[in-house]
Amino acid sequence: MSTGVIIALIVIVAAVIAVAAILAARARGSHGGRSLKQRFGPEYDRAVARHDGDVKAAERELGALVERHGGLHERPLEPAERERFEARWTAAQERFVDSPREAVAEADRLLAEVAGARGFPDGAQYEEQVAALSVHHADHVHGYRRVHQVARVGADGGTRDGRGPGTEDLRAAMVDGRALFDDLVGQDRHMSGRHRARTRHDDRRATRAREGHHLPWSFHRHQTKEG
Q1: Distances (CA, A) of 191 to 72, 180, 185
Q2: Does an H or E element contain 18, and which?
Q3: Can you say how many angstroms the Cα of residue 54 is from the centroid of all Cα atoms in its chain?
Q4: Which helix (H) or strand (E) holds 83?
Q5: Model pLDDT for residues 61-99, shown as the tens digit of each residue
Q6: Looking at 69, 93, 116, which one is the last position of a domain?
Q7: For residues 82 and 93, is the Cβ–Cβ distance under 8 A?
Q8: Global confidence as pTM
Q9: 170: which of 100, 144, 185, 199 fits an S-S bond (Cβ 3.0–4.6 Å)?
Q10: Using an 8 Å Cβ cutoff, are 103 and 90 in contact?
């Protein structure tokens, strides 16, 4: 076999290997994008919107979050811990009737504590804690953001026009925050089938509440004293 033929074969083989590598890289990138979208759900869309529609930039950000927090192992709560957290959340819901702002502030503190107890970064590192939660509880982490934002606005004395969040904003934040709370305490793992069905029904009612229909908990039976 002549030298020219050998060189030609080497070039052809090298070209085939290069093309195969490119196709494999594209396949991995496509699969990675689908995987991230499935994993992050609403958080994926939020990241894309934050990057003004730049999907690649959003996926780089989400990929970095997975690398940083994907290996986190959530610590299960002891039954006594779970009961204490649930009792505090129930008390906060009941307190909402008379003191909506204080109830939301307590919900904000409670979400931070529950997340910390499950092994997430400490609540004092809010941004890092939310980032880790977005990797493992992507469907409900927005509820924590909403509670935290409303609680902070209330603590700062309101918006620029001097008005704080209204009762409806506070109520909606509590509803959204409860979804993450239930996810963190692992409520579905220790309730009966009938209780799970009732909770799912309550969640549907909560969704309708955000759309302007009936309100969850006892809110539809009582008026708050704080407007």
Answers
A1: 26, 17, 12
A2: helix 3-40
A3: 21
A4: helix 79-96
A5: 999 999 999 999 999 999 999 999 999 999 999 999 999
A6: 69
A7: no
A8: 0.67
A9: 100
A10: no
How far apart, in whole angstroms, are the C-alpha atoms of residue 60 and residue 91?
A: 41
Domain final residue pick, 43, 69, 95: 69
Give the range of the structural domain holding residue 13, as residue numbers without chain letter: 3-69
The letter for the amino acid at 38 is Q
Which of 111, 104, 96 shows the shortest CA–CA distance to 144? Answer: 111
Same domain? 61 vs 94: no
Give the contacts of 131 (CB within 8 A, at least 6 positions apart): 65, 68, 69
Token match 């006892």: residue? 218
Residues 6+ apart with CB under 8 A from 75: 117, 118, 119
Q: Are residues 112 and 180 in the same domain?
A: yes
Nearest-angstrom CA–CA distance, 55 and 210: 29
Same domain, yes or no, for 112 and 17? Answer: no
Nearby residues of 92 by Cβ (< 8 Å), 6 or more positions away = 103, 106, 107, 110, 174
Q: Which residue has the tokens 């969850």?
A: 216
Both tokens assigned to 13: 């083989």
For 110, the token pair is 């409670």
